[in-house]
Structure formats: structure tokens, C-alpha cells
Amino acid sequence: MNDWIQEGACLGVRSDIFYPPELPDDDGTAGYTAEQYREAYGPAKEICATCPVQIRCLEHALDKKERWGVWGGLIPIERLRIERKWRRQRLRVRRASEGHEGPYIEGTLEDDDV
Ligand code: SF4
């Protein structure tokens, strides 16, 4: 099931590093500065950067719509951005498949999607 968790670089690490209490998770509207994000989530991101199961962790978080903490090296607002891009992309593909002309049909990603 989620056996990959046992291989995570965060195994045994204090959970408050991944769920920093000084900076509540938010949906991107709380107005925290980039510096506040860096200070609160930097240590967790550094651990994730060394993790052998980072991609699986991120996929899990996106699949389960995890709204809290650092998963796969990404903080909640970063995961939310990925979800929004996927939603827009799915909408474009659906419209194209239904015969509507979209801004583009060929290719799958826009420059700002990567
Ligand atoms: S990517 Fe980060 S949160 Fe996920 S298992 Fe690895 S160390 Fe833990």
C-alpha cells in the first residue's frame, strides 16, 4: 500500500518540521512572504530533496489532496498550483475532444506549466 513511506528520508524526523506550527498552512491567500515560507518550510524541503521516494510521496499527496504540511518537497500552495494547472489542462483536452476550439490543442503543456 504505502510501503514507500518506510523509505522516506523523513522517517523518524520530528513531524513539526513538516508541519511547522509557526506558519499555518493556507490556500495561498494568507499573504505570507516568501521569506516566511522559506524559514518555515526550508528544513523540510531540504530533507525531501534527499529523499528516494520524493515523487511517490508527491503523487500520493496530490492524489489524496493533502492540504497540510510538506509532501514530496512541496508546500501546500505549491501542490495547489499543480492541481490548478492539471484542472485547466484537463478542461482544455475535454473541450478539444468535444470539438470546441481552444487556445491550442497540440502539445500538452504551456511554458508556465513546467
Ligand atoms: S518526500 Fe519528504 S515528506 Fe515525502 S517521504 Fe520523502 S522526506 Fe518524507
Summary?
With 114 residues, this protein is mostly helical.
What features would you highlight for this structure?
114 residues, binds iron/sulfur cluster, mainly alpha, 3 helices, single chain
3D structure, described in words:
- There is one protein chain.
- The chain is flat.
- Helix content is 42%, strand content 0%.
- It is mainly α.
- The chain has helices spanning 34-48, 54-64, 76-97.
- The protein has one domain.
- The structure holds iron/sulfur cluster.
- Iron/sulfur cluster binds next to α1 and α2.
Largest sheet: none
Please give the radius of gyration in angstroms: 17 Å
Which class do the helix and strand fractions yield?
mainly alpha
Bound molecules: iron/sulfur cluster
Determine the mean pLDDT: 84
Helix and strand run: HHH
Estimate the helix proportion, in percent.
40-55%
Q: Count up the domains.
A: 1
Could you outline the blueprint of secondary structure elements for this entry?
Elements: H1 34-48, H2 54-64, H3 76-97
Bound molecules: iron/sulfur cluster (SF4).
Iron/sulfur cluster binds next to helix 1 and helix 2.
